[in-house]
Write a structure and sequence with these properties.
The chain has about 270 residues and is an alpha+beta fold. It is built from five helices and seven strands. The chain has helices at about 1-65, 70-100, 110-125, 150-165, 225-235, and strands at about 110, 130-135, 145, 170-180, 180-190, 235-245, 245-255. The chain has a five-stranded mixed β-sheet with strand order 2-4-5-7-6. Strands 1-3 form a two-stranded antiparallel ribbon. The longest helix is centred in the N-terminal third of the chain and has 64 residues, at about 1-65. The chain is globular, with a radius of gyration of 25 Å. The termini are far apart. Adenosine-5'-diphosphate binds near residues 207 and 220. Adenosine-5'-diphosphate binds near residues 192, 194, 209 and 225. Keywords: Kinase, Phosphoprotein, Transferase.
Length: about 270
């Protein structure tokens, strides 16, 4: 009986080892598949702005050769494709910096309300007028200790997504409000929404929800991954609430910097 027991135990152990090997093999296969899919999507995404850019430039060259006037809107479109390309490459570089722990932050006292206003201004200047962006500023200045360049990137990313995933236009509501020791940024859109079972995974690298096909909405699935890293390294958190077909609200909570008392001006003594 004892011998039989040992044999059964041996078989069980071998089966466990076999199952573990199969699991690791499947995981490795999945990782290779994700990487291959990503390379296909990334190459496609990088090529998408390049083709119209090359066409525009060829058109401009022809006109100049013939001594004709150049249409400024052509140049603007060419610049937009170039900006898109730069943004994609920056996302790829940032994601790789995060992976290797090389994304440096340069924190300084930063006015979040001013940053949000700036990002909205820039975004309005580069997008068509199909959407309205409404900003509800905080009653008092919202100051955080953070890297202004990286925080601007987070705000811009959330705003870009709100516009991109609200294809029918509508109003994007942005708000900043104090919550105790924190300041809460909300970006609410009336867009396509996110399926409930996918919401937790949005902040993973390369993840794109199943209701966005590469065909209709370009993207690499890196923006929110980068946002989460930046926000968490500022001691904050980022999350989403969403309903398919009704829209999404992204939240970012960051610790505020207590307002420093303004030092009285130093007046030279009179003699
Ligand atoms: P990308 O937009 O390049 O795919 P992100 O990391 O910014 O990458 O977003 C990851 C995924 O989250 C998107 O592919 C999309 O499925 C979903 N998503 C992000 N923002 C929104 C939004 N405002 N509305 C609906 N879905 C969104």
């Amino acid at each position: 009986v004892l011998g039989l027991g040992a044999v059964v135990e041996d078989i069980t152990e071998r089966r466990h080892a076999e199952e573990e090997r199969t699991r690791l093999y499947r995981e490795a296969q999945e990782a290779v598949r994700v990487r291959d899919d990503f390379l296909t999507i990334a190459s496609h995404e990088l090529k998408t702005p390049l083709t119209p850019l090359a066409l525009r430039l060829a058109g401009l060259e022809r006109r100049l050769d013939r001594g004709e006037q150049v249409d400024p809107s052509s140049l603007r479109h060419a610049r937009q494709h170039l900006l898109r390309l730069t943004a994609l490459i920056n996302d790829l570089l940032d994601a790789s910096r995060i992976e290797s722990g090389r994304l440096a932050l340069h924190p300084q006292p930063t006015r979040l309300d001013t940053l949000v206003e700036h990002v909205i201004h820039v975004t309005e200047g580069t997008h068509d007028a199909e959407h309205r962006i409404e900003f509800q500023p905080p009653a008092a200045p919202a100051q955080v200790l953070g890297d202004p360049y990286r925080l601007e990137q987070v705000i811009a990313n959330l705003l870009e997504n709100a516009l991109k995933y609200s294809p029918d236009g509508g109003t994007i509501h942005v708000a900043l409000e104090p919550r105790g020791e924190l300041v809460l940024l909300t970006v609410r859109d009336p867009g396509i929404g996110i399926p409930p079972d996918q919401q937790e995974r949005l902040f993973e690298r390369y993840f794109r929800a199943r209701n966005v096909s590469t065909h209709s909405y370009g993207g690499l699935g890196l923006g929110l991954y980068i946002c989460r890293d930046i926000v968490e390294r500022h001691g904050g958190s980022i999350w989403v609430e969403s309903e398919v077909g009704r829209g999404s609200t992204f939240y970012v909570a960051l610790p505020t910097l207590p307002a420093t008392p303004v030092a009285p001006p130093h007046l030279p003594e009179r003699h």
